[in-house]
Amino acid sequence: MEKRFIYADNAATTPLSETALNAMLPWLKEGYGNPSSVYRIARESRIALENARKTVAECLGAKPTEIYFTSGGTEGDNWAIKGALARSRRKGVIISNVEHHAVLHSALAMEKFGFKVTELPVRENGIVSPDDLRAMIDEDTAIVSVMLANNEIGTIQPIAELAAIAHEHGALMHTDAVQAAGHIPIDVKELGVDILTISAHKFHGPKGVGVQYIRSGVRITNLIDGGGHERGRRSGTENVASACGLAAALKEAVDTLPERMPRLTAMRNRLIDGLLKIPYVQLTGDLDKRLPATVSVVINAVEGEGLILTLDELGVCASSGSACTSGSLDPSHVLLAIGLKHEVAHGSLRLTLPDDIDEDGVDYIIWAVATAAERLRAMSPVWDSSAGRPM
Amino acid sequence: MLYSDKVMDHFAHPRNVGEIPDADGVGTVGNAKCGDIMQMFLKIENDVIVDVKFKTFGCGAAVATSSMATELVKGATIEEALKLTNKAVMEALDGLPPVKVHCSVLAEQAIRAALSDYYRRQGIDPEPIVGKIEELDEHGEEEEE
Ligand SMILES: Cc1ncc(COP(=O)(O)O)c(C=O)c1O
Fold it and tell me: How many domains does chain A divide into?
């Protein structure tokens, strides 16, 4: 097989699109005016920023006054959880047990201030059950936070149903849509959420910029105080270039969704089929309720970091939730949450396909994973090479 | 996290991979739950390690430290092999990231476990010579909690 290079780690980050770069360049060069000033070049920056806000609002089905630019997904998640709890007389926060660390650690950080974190467990398919939420929510729950799409296994959660339950009990509903934005359609009204978080670098925008949607009338405490930017709710001189890059990237992603989604879904399914033909490989997360370009599997008798390094040699960038890649002794909490044993979770592999992937590319990835697994299994003391199965 | 070129070389081209069917000593350390298992096979003649092979399930550093450890003990006397430290393995690899130091400890332990097995097969209690080593039970598994 002729060696290729395929970047299949688009859930980690994506390359900046040409469209986003071009939308940013003027504001990195001559358009340096501070949007808060009054002269012409400042007014131009202000207009660009407000146009970006309008574009984002249209992409999400929101009003421009509901859109706040932030520094990214981590800030947005911190703001939602900490801001909602600080504002409420209630003491409880419910999060799913597969949240990104930005939500999980924000919630846990509030425990020392007397707040109570309850975890909503996912089922084996990586999806929470609305009935479980109904059973655990009460009148002391200030906010429920469940991600729209998971960053490790790609599963999509029933946010609209969860939001309805949260609202029945007077709680706010937040969703971390960082992995979903630009990859599946998002309409904040249909989702029924109060707060939604996205991050530009996951949809071909620049790193270090995100958007917080906060529904009109919803009040949460500020995370970042200062000169009163973003209508008093998120201070700091506006990052005009990044906001314009985010808006351009999001619009491009949303506009091309009708064409990209079915195509990527077909590629994803081809990849899943090919990987499952490798002996002792198992899909993690629901087969259908998953992001169009995300594949996650566990490969028996293979360790994740070794697999990622071997795939890198074969020209494929991927990631794993094994302990070794997380820098701790435990595999990722997401893999354990779906009921995988430690020894199985160590062999996890996540592939998130690039937009321009074709059938040959998918077949190359399948070949690379099969080759890497074979090589690592041949030196694995827990694999019986002559029988072709785990010991 | 940054691996040295030596670590990457030993990961990509591990030396002495495999098994020795008629080994004189076999040692297995680590466990699947933690994500690292190393197995060492020794062929010993007149107190000299004439051949050594390994099998490892684990990360890049686990494979590289096993590979390096086999290179360091091949042709060595038992006495010399018993002096192999994890530090020597790390230095030979131009260092390891801090979170990976335990892999070098495992490599040292794997050699000692194989030597213990060698002594045991001779009817000699290895503990006074080799020291205490946590070996795997024969299924290579820990109890599920
Ligand atoms: C689901 C999810 N939430 C939050 C984040 C954090 O976003 P950012 O990198 O913009 O801080 C990420 C990205 O790593 C993510 O995948």
Answer: 2
